Amino acid sequence: MKSEVRSFIASARSIVVKIGSSALTDLREGLDTGRLDQLADALEARMRAGTDVIVVSSGAVSAGIAPLGLKKRPTDLATKQAAASVGQLALAHAWGTSFARFGRTVGQVLLTADDISNRAHHANAQRTLDRLRSLHAVAVVNENDTVATNEIRFGDNDRLAALVAHLAGADALVLLSDVDGLYDGDPRRVLAGRPPAKPVPEVAGPEDLDGVIAGAGGALGTGGMASKLAAARLAADSGVPVLLAAAADADRALSDASVGTAFAARAERLSARKFWVRHAAETSGRLMLDDGAVQAVSRRRSLLSAGIVATSGHYFDGDVVELVDKRGVIHARGVSSYGADDVATMLGHSTSQLPAELRRPVVHADDLVLVH
Ligand SMILES: Nc1ncnc2c1ncn2[C@@H]1O[C@H](COP(=O)(O)OP(=O)(O)O)[C@@H](O)[C@H]1O
Ligand SMILES: N[C@@H](CCC(=O)OP(=O)(O)O)C(=O)O
């Protein structure tokens, strides 16, 4: 019998599907358009069944390797960016050509980490994805590799896909790779004296990951299984179930979700705003709380100025700050209702001692998420 999580993913109204470089490209041949067509077939079938689909497609860097006459995936930033600029063009063109077989239009959406962490950019990206969907076009998302430097990268497209799933309010995330699911060790590396790696069909919680060794990826992938696991947990811990499967099994993964590893959602879904506060926003300041305020915040109460003993950093109203105890341990993140200059004048004051314009909670309970 199919598990609840697989049934949920199979019938989800909106999904994000991430496809890894290793599934789309070959070191010598470049882009594998046959595989890409097979994926577009499965994606189109799911869309025709009534599901909204956003594609996160890796492969720009690896699709640029062969045309530039390089022998292996570059490691230095400049060559990676040059390869991505060549490869992204080929990648977008290939997706466009493939979906054109069904009369389906493709929109390319290239994002930087700042587009997710900055509230205004975040809203712009959200609006574009939304409108593409309402126009029945399929968004093909990738990191904007030519401008992303090491310091400001998402890190890998598995994480980008988990963030996009939340940004777009998707019900489920599907990660398609060259491996047919999670194993308790890298199935490609058979170690002497150790039994072959065993598949892990379902992950209900962290206990199912005990003893699992998530290793590096292949010659074309970036983050390997470790980044897939981190992204799956990021999504599942904030309410979005995940299916990790082989791109070669895309038709089954996208029709009945009967293949690969399914990760159950472990919590109520965080609102898009709380998800942003918790995972996406950059913090620009810190508020140090007394013990009573730490307790109140832990019980998800609004933070009042009376419980704040110090403020640091330069932040404005609407920016995200960390809430720390006197030892500097972070307990929560939240949106500050005031800028740093105002908060500095409010420290330790009870609401009744403050002028009327400073009497709102410094962080409202609705804008506060606990950090475990
Ligand atoms: N525990 C594991 N289970 C499954 N695959 C693993 C594991 N540890 C490492 N891997 C490797 O991770 C690879 C997938 O990662 P990667 O090459 O980055 O893919 P992609 O390009 O799809 O992002 C697989 O080919 C596999 O060899
Ligand atoms: N943005 C990069 C992909 C980075 C990445 O995470 O790749 P992968 O591990 O194959 O999903 C590219 O298009 O080459």
UniProtKB/TrEMBL annotation:
<dbReference type="InterPro" id="IPR036393">
    <property type="entry name" value="AceGlu_kinase-like_sf"/>
</dbReference>
<comment type="function">
    <text>Catalyzes the transfer of a phosphate group to glutamate to form L-glutamate 5-phosphate.</text>
</comment>
<keyword id="KW-0067">ATP-binding</keyword>
<keyword id="KW-0418">Kinase</keyword>
<feature type="binding site">
    <location>
        <position position="18"/>
    </location>
    <ligand>
        <name>ATP</name>
    </ligand>
</feature>
<dbReference type="GO" id="GO:0005524">
    <property type="term" value="F:ATP binding"/>
</dbReference>
<keyword id="KW-0641">Proline biosynthesis</keyword>
<feature type="domain" description="PUA">
    <location>
        <begin position="285"/>
        <end position="363"/>
    </location>
</feature>
<feature type="binding site">
    <location>
        <begin position="177"/>
        <end position="178"/>
    </location>
    <ligand>
        <name>ATP</name>
    </ligand>
</feature>
<dbReference type="Pfam" id="PF00696">
    <property type="entry name" value="AA_kinase"/>
</dbReference>
<feature type="binding site">
    <location>
        <position position="145"/>
    </location>
    <ligand>
        <name>substrate</name>
    </ligand>
</feature>
<dbReference type="GO" id="GO:0055129">
    <property type="term" value="P:L-proline biosynthetic process"/>
</dbReference>
<dbReference type="InterPro" id="IPR036974">
    <property type="entry name" value="PUA_sf"/>
</dbReference>
<dbReference type="InterPro" id="IPR041739">
    <property type="entry name" value="G5K_ProB"/>
</dbReference>
<dbReference type="InterPro" id="IPR019797">
    <property type="entry name" value="Glutamate_5-kinase_CS"/>
</dbReference>
<keyword id="KW-0963">Cytoplasm</keyword>
<dbReference type="GO" id="GO:0005829">
    <property type="term" value="C:cytosol"/>
</dbReference>
<dbReference type="GO" id="GO:0003723">
    <property type="term" value="F:RNA binding"/>
</dbReference>
<dbReference type="InterPro" id="IPR001057">
    <property type="entry name" value="Glu/AcGlu_kinase"/>
</dbReference>
<protein>
    <recommendedName>
        <fullName>Glutamate 5-kinase</fullName>
        <ecNumber>2.7.2.11</ecNumber>
    </recommendedName>
</protein>
<feature type="binding site">
    <location>
        <begin position="222"/>
        <end position="228"/>
    </location>
    <ligand>
        <name>ATP</name>
    </ligand>
</feature>
<feature type="binding site">
    <location>
        <position position="157"/>
    </location>
    <ligand>
        <name>substrate</name>
    </ligand>
</feature>
<dbReference type="Pfam" id="PF01472">
    <property type="entry name" value="PUA"/>
</dbReference>
<feature type="binding site">
    <location>
        <position position="58"/>
    </location>
    <ligand>
        <name>substrate</name>
    </ligand>
</feature>
<dbReference type="InterPro" id="IPR002478">
    <property type="entry name" value="PUA"/>
</dbReference>
<comment type="pathway">
    <text>Amino-acid biosynthesis; L-proline biosynthesis; L-glutamate 5-semialdehyde from L-glutamate: step 1/2.</text>
</comment>
<keyword id="KW-0808">Transferase</keyword>
<keyword id="KW-0547">Nucleotide-binding</keyword>
<dbReference type="InterPro" id="IPR015947">
    <property type="entry name" value="PUA-like_sf"/>
</dbReference>
<keyword id="KW-0028">Amino-acid biosynthesis</keyword>
<dbReference type="InterPro" id="IPR005715">
    <property type="entry name" value="Glu_5kinase/COase_Synthase"/>
</dbReference>
<dbReference type="GO" id="GO:0004349">
    <property type="term" value="F:glutamate 5-kinase activity"/>
</dbReference>
<comment type="similarity">
    <text>Belongs to the glutamate 5-kinase family.</text>
</comment>
<dbReference type="InterPro" id="IPR001048">
    <property type="entry name" value="Asp/Glu/Uridylate_kinase"/>
</dbReference>
<dbReference type="InterPro" id="IPR011529">
    <property type="entry name" value="Glu_5kinase"/>
</dbReference>
